[in-house]
Specification:
By secondary structure, the chain is of the alpha/beta class. The protein has one domain: Rossmann fold. The chain is built from 5 helices and 7 strands. It has a 7-stranded mixed sheet with strand order 3-2-1-4-5-7-6, with helices on both faces. The longest helix has 14 residues.
Protein backbone atom coordinates (compact mmCIF):
# COMPACT_ATOMS: atom_id res chain seq x y z
CA UNK A 1 0.00 0.00 0.00
CA UNK A 2 1.34 3.41 -0.93
CA UNK A 3 0.36 7.05 -1.16
CA UNK A 4 -0.30 7.70 -4.85
CA UNK A 5 -0.12 11.48 -5.17
CA UNK A 6 0.70 14.77 -3.46
CA UNK A 7 3.53 15.78 -1.18
CA UNK A 8 3.81 12.25 0.31
CA UNK A 9 3.64 10.47 -3.07
CA UNK A 10 5.35 7.11 -3.11
CA UNK A 11 5.52 6.66 0.66
CA UNK A 12 4.58 3.16 1.76
CA UNK A 13 1.96 2.53 4.40
CA UNK A 14 3.04 -0.47 6.47
CA UNK A 15 0.42 -1.37 9.06
CA UNK A 16 0.95 -4.19 11.55
CA UNK A 17 -0.11 -7.53 10.07
CA UNK A 18 -2.64 -8.25 12.81
CA UNK A 19 -5.03 -5.39 11.95
CA UNK A 20 -8.48 -6.55 10.77
CA UNK A 21 -8.48 -4.46 7.57
CA UNK A 22 -9.20 -4.64 3.86
CA UNK A 23 -7.37 -1.60 2.46
CA UNK A 24 -8.69 0.18 -0.63
CA UNK A 25 -6.60 -0.89 -3.63
CA UNK A 26 -4.31 1.60 -5.36
CA UNK A 27 -6.36 1.24 -8.58
CA UNK A 28 -9.63 2.05 -6.82
CA UNK A 29 -7.97 4.85 -4.85
CA UNK A 30 -6.66 6.43 -8.08
CA UNK A 31 -10.15 6.34 -9.57
CA UNK A 32 -11.69 7.85 -6.44
CA UNK A 33 -9.17 10.68 -6.27
CA UNK A 34 -9.58 11.46 -9.97
CA UNK A 35 -13.23 12.17 -9.16
CA UNK A 36 -12.40 14.17 -6.03
CA UNK A 37 -9.70 16.21 -7.81
CA UNK A 38 -12.29 17.41 -10.30
CA UNK A 39 -14.71 18.42 -7.57
CA UNK A 40 -12.62 19.85 -4.73
CA UNK A 41 -9.70 22.07 -3.91
CA UNK A 42 -8.36 20.11 -0.95
CA UNK A 43 -6.88 23.07 0.95
CA UNK A 44 -9.12 24.02 3.86
CA UNK A 45 -11.43 20.99 3.67
CA UNK A 46 -12.73 19.18 6.73
CA UNK A 47 -12.81 15.40 6.23
CA UNK A 48 -14.20 12.44 8.16
CA UNK A 49 -12.93 8.89 7.57
CA UNK A 50 -15.27 6.30 9.09
CA UNK A 51 -14.03 2.72 9.59
CA UNK A 52 -10.62 4.21 8.78
CA UNK A 53 -8.66 0.96 9.16
CA UNK A 54 -5.07 1.75 8.11
CA UNK A 55 -5.82 5.41 7.40
CA UNK A 56 -5.06 4.81 3.72
CA UNK A 57 -7.69 7.33 2.50
CA UNK A 58 -6.87 9.91 5.19
CA UNK A 59 -3.17 9.79 4.39
CA UNK A 60 -3.98 10.32 0.72
CA UNK A 61 -6.13 13.33 1.66
CA UNK A 62 -3.32 14.69 3.86
CA UNK A 63 -0.83 14.26 1.03
CA UNK A 64 -3.08 16.36 -1.23
CA UNK A 65 -3.41 19.25 1.21
CA UNK A 66 -6.23 18.41 3.64
CA UNK A 67 -5.21 19.40 7.16
CA UNK A 68 -8.42 18.88 9.15
CA UNK A 69 -8.91 15.12 9.31
CA UNK A 70 -11.08 13.10 11.70
CA UNK A 71 -10.64 9.31 11.64
CA UNK A 72 -12.94 6.87 13.40
CA UNK A 73 -12.37 3.17 14.00
CA UNK A 74 -13.53 0.85 16.77
CA UNK A 75 -10.38 -1.28 16.66
CA UNK A 76 -7.75 0.03 19.11
CA UNK A 77 -4.87 -1.18 16.92
CA UNK A 78 -6.24 0.62 13.87
CA UNK A 79 -6.85 3.83 15.81
CA UNK A 80 -3.33 3.76 17.26
CA UNK A 81 -1.68 3.07 13.88
CA UNK A 82 -3.60 5.89 12.17
CA UNK A 83 -2.80 8.32 15.00
CA UNK A 84 0.92 7.52 14.72
CA UNK A 85 0.84 7.80 10.91
CA UNK A 86 -0.89 11.18 10.88
CA UNK A 87 1.54 12.52 13.48
CA UNK A 88 4.53 11.12 11.58
CA UNK A 89 3.46 12.92 8.40
CA UNK A 90 2.77 16.21 10.14
CA UNK A 91 -1.01 16.41 10.31
CA UNK A 92 -1.47 18.93 13.10
CA UNK A 93 -5.27 19.16 12.90
CA UNK A 94 -6.12 15.48 13.08
CA UNK A 95 -8.46 13.77 15.47
CA UNK A 96 -8.43 9.98 15.77
CA UNK A 97 -11.41 8.59 17.63
CA UNK A 98 -11.66 5.00 18.82
CA UNK A 99 -15.41 4.42 18.59
CA UNK A 100 -18.17 2.64 16.76
CA UNK A 101 -18.86 4.72 13.64
CA UNK A 102 -22.64 4.77 14.06
CA UNK A 103 -22.37 5.83 17.70
CA UNK A 104 -19.88 8.53 16.72
CA UNK A 105 -22.28 9.86 14.06
CA UNK A 106 -25.14 9.82 16.55
CA UNK A 107 -23.35 12.33 18.78
CA UNK A 108 -21.25 14.20 16.20
CA UNK A 109 -21.48 17.95 15.90
CA UNK A 110 -20.24 20.07 13.05
CA UNK A 111 -20.09 19.36 9.35
CA UNK A 112 -17.58 17.86 6.96
CA UNK A 113 -16.80 18.54 3.31
CA UNK A 114 -15.92 14.92 2.55
CA UNK A 115 -17.13 11.93 4.53
CA UNK A 116 -15.65 8.59 3.48
CA UNK A 117 -17.01 5.35 4.94
CA UNK A 118 -15.59 1.89 4.32
CA UNK A 119 -17.46 -0.47 6.64
CA UNK A 120 -16.41 -4.12 6.74
CA UNK A 121 -18.04 -5.83 3.76
CA UNK A 122 -19.86 -8.27 6.06
CA UNK A 123 -21.34 -5.36 8.07
CA UNK A 124 -24.49 -4.23 6.23
CA UNK A 125 -24.75 -0.70 7.65
CA UNK A 126 -24.41 1.15 4.34
CA UNK A 127 -28.01 2.44 4.12
CA UNK A 128 -28.01 3.29 7.83
CA UNK A 129 -24.83 5.36 7.39
CA UNK A 130 -26.31 7.37 4.52
CA UNK A 131 -29.57 7.97 6.40
CA UNK A 132 -27.84 9.03 9.63
CA UNK A 133 -25.34 11.37 7.94
CA UNK A 134 -27.92 13.10 5.75
CA UNK A 135 -30.65 13.23 8.43
CA UNK A 136 -28.27 14.79 10.96
CA UNK A 137 -26.95 17.30 8.41
CA UNK A 138 -23.31 16.29 8.84
CA UNK A 139 -22.33 17.17 5.24
CA UNK A 140 -21.46 20.70 4.23
CA UNK A 141 -23.72 22.21 1.56
CA UNK A 142 -21.41 21.20 -1.31
CA UNK A 143 -20.07 18.19 0.55
CA UNK A 144 -19.77 14.61 -0.59
CA UNK A 145 -20.39 11.32 1.16
CA UNK A 146 -18.59 8.32 -0.32
CA UNK A 147 -19.50 4.78 0.71
CA UNK A 148 -17.15 1.94 -0.29
CA UNK A 149 -19.05 -1.32 -0.68
CA UNK A 150 -19.04 -4.69 -2.43
CA UNK A 151 -20.66 -5.17 -5.83
CA UNK A 152 -23.68 -7.05 -4.45
CA UNK A 153 -25.00 -3.96 -2.63
CA UNK A 154 -27.10 -1.40 -4.51
CA UNK A 155 -27.44 2.00 -2.83
CA UNK A 156 -28.96 3.83 -5.82
CA UNK A 157 -32.43 4.14 -4.26
CA UNK A 158 -31.23 6.04 -1.18
CA UNK A 159 -31.77 9.74 -0.61
CA UNK A 160 -28.93 11.93 -1.87
CA UNK A 161 -27.61 9.33 -4.32
CA UNK A 162 -25.53 10.73 -7.20
CA UNK A 163 -23.61 7.87 -8.79
CA UNK A 164 -21.71 4.62 -8.32
CA UNK A 165 -18.26 3.92 -9.72
CA UNK A 166 -17.02 0.36 -10.07
CA UNK A 167 -13.46 -0.85 -9.66
CA UNK A 168 -13.56 -4.62 -9.97
CA UNK A 169 -15.58 -6.06 -7.08
CA UNK A 170 -15.30 -2.80 -5.15
CA UNK A 171 -17.77 0.06 -5.64
CA UNK A 172 -17.90 3.65 -4.47
CA UNK A 173 -21.35 5.23 -4.17
CA UNK A 174 -21.53 9.01 -3.92
CA UNK A 175 -24.15 11.06 -2.07
CA UNK A 176 -24.78 14.73 -1.54
CA UNK A 177 -27.12 16.57 0.77
CA UNK A 178 -28.72 18.29 -2.24
CA UNK A 179 -29.34 15.39 -4.67
Amino acid sequence: MRIISGRLKGRNIRPPRNLPVRPTTDMAKEGLFNILNNRFDFDGLRTLDLFCGTGNISLELLSRGVEDITCVDANPGCAQFVKQSLEEYGCERSNVVRADALQFLGRATGKWDIIFADPPFDNDVHAELVELILHRGLLEEDGLLIIEHPSNIDLSTLKGYEQTRRYGRLHFSFFSSEA
